[in-house]
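User: I'm curious whether this sequence folds into something compact or stays loose and floppy. Could you predict its structure so I can see for myself?
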Amino acid sequence: MEVFYKDLIYNKCNMGEVTNKDVYKNLIDLFKRHPEFEEKKGTGIQKIFIHQNKLNKKAREIYIERIDGSVVVISWRTCLSGLGKSNKALTLQAMRSAIHNQITDFKKAQKQVCNNCPSICDLEVDHTGSVVFSDMADLFLKNKILPSDFSYDKFGRVSFKDVDKELQESWEAYHKFYATLQLLCKNCHIKKTRGY
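Assistant: Here's the prediction. I'll summarize afterward.
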C-alpha cells in the first residue's frame, strides 16, 4: 500500500491542485485512515493540493482546503499507519521546532563543509559530544508533565501552544547551554545515527 500511495503522490500528481478524479478519490480513501480524519476534514473537503515541503525540497506535503476556506496539512504516512503520534513524540517534534532558529543560526555561522569528510553537499546540523539530542531531550523532560495539545507553525512543524510557552523557553535555554553541534553531510549523518 505504501508503494502505491508514494507513487501516486510523487509520480502521478503534479504540484498544485489535484484535478484527476481517480487520484482525488484514492487520496480521499487514504485520508479516511487518518486517526484525526474528522478533525482534518472539518466542514468538508473542497480541494486537495500537493506542495513541495518547504524544509525538505525532495518531500511533498498534502493540504486539504475545506469548504469554509480553511487549509490544513495531512500526513499521508500517518494515514497509512492509521496511528496518531504519542504525546512524547509530538513533544520531541515541538522541541525540535523550538530550537530551529538555533540550528539555522549555527549552520549559517559555520564553514560549509562536513566535519567528518570533505563533502560540501547536503549539509545537516548534528548534535555531537557526550549528549545527543534524544538524550538531552530525555534529561530535560525528566519529571516534567508533557503537553497534551500542540500547534503547527507556518512550515507545518509541530510546535508548542502559548499555554506551554514557559516549557518552550526553558527548553530553548537548556539546549543553547548544553548542545554541542557540528555540520555533517547527509551520508555521514546517516552513518553516525545508524552506528556505522
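Summary: The chain has two domains: 2-81, 87-194. The CA atoms of residues 152 and 158 lie 5 Å apart.
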